[in-house]
Amino acid sequence: MSQGKPEPVSRRYDVPDAHARAGIREALERLGPSERKTEAWCDWVLVFEDEREKLVLKQYQKGTLMIQGRAGHLLQVILHVLSPFLDGPGETAAADSGGAKTEKKAKTRKLPLPHIGTDESGKGDYFGPLAVGGVMVETASRERLAALGIRDSKELSDARCRELAAEIRRICVERYREVIIPPERYNTLYEEFRREGRNLNHLLAWAHARAIESLLACAPCRLAVADQFGNERYIRSSLMNKGREIELIQEHRGERYLAVAAASILARDRFLEYLDRLSGEAGLTLPKGAGPPVVTAAREYVKRHGVDKLSRVAKLHYKTTAQVV
Length: 325
What we know:
By secondary structure, the protein is α+β, with helices and mostly antiparallel strands. The strands form 3 sheets. Strands 1-5-4-3-2 form a 5-stranded antiparallel β-sheet, with helices on one face. Helix 4 (158-171) crosses helix 8 (258-282). It is globular, with a radius of gyration of 19 Å. It folds into 3 domains: 7-86, Double Stranded RNA Binding Domain; 92-96 and 106-273, Ribonuclease H-like superfamily/Ribonuclease H (Nucleotidyltransferase, domain 5, 2-Layer Sandwich), CATH 3.30.420; 279-324. The chain is built from 10 helices and 12 strands.
């Protein structure tokens, strides 16, 4: 998954709420840590590795969460998983100064209307597609969306996510877009990008840009906001003529914006829908995430359908493939 040179990482977060700490561990376990350790004064220690990248996450009993190691893309994946537990979405967002301890003190800014929010689902899941949602929030839809209690899809049950997605589509008629990249197409694109010296973040940016461009084709808008998953130039360089005329904001924990949170729900809904369909066609449940249950299911899939069919259901560049075949 990783590309580019990993950089030193040392981040500290205060997580005093025991329920939030439990939610963080559950979310991280779904990613499939490479190692679990026991250390004094810690509730848990999880190690994640991806090629040259390695991160160690330690949850101390007094509430401090430490993230240390060397990483690039792997850090963005971890932060994306942690985001709903460290911040909540709304119409305003704190400017991210890059320091974990200063985020709550940072100034907030209110987004002018209309604006577009985009987010993706499936990039941390071995099985299933990559799905990107885009939502344009306007004056007429803002209050109706806010009244739904929209928040980042990772904070919602699958059932609630599906319900909210239907409501968002009903409220935002012609003001939402969904880009779905099935596994086979995803694998082809990933190889094409890799041969051109580009990585997964470029592929993500390409999908976000397609959602933004498609929304701009149906209504004018001067602002788009997305969760930052890599260099800010990635999405902007993927935009075409219409997209290059807008202001583009990319920030960590972008789901605290109402539009981005709504987009995350649409993307998650389409991911779940597609994963269910693949499971039905495969004749077995294809789990979310990339942990041990996923490896077990992948081995069973290969046993039933053959390794040459794995590209139909899975993202082959994940290290999970090596564990399977």
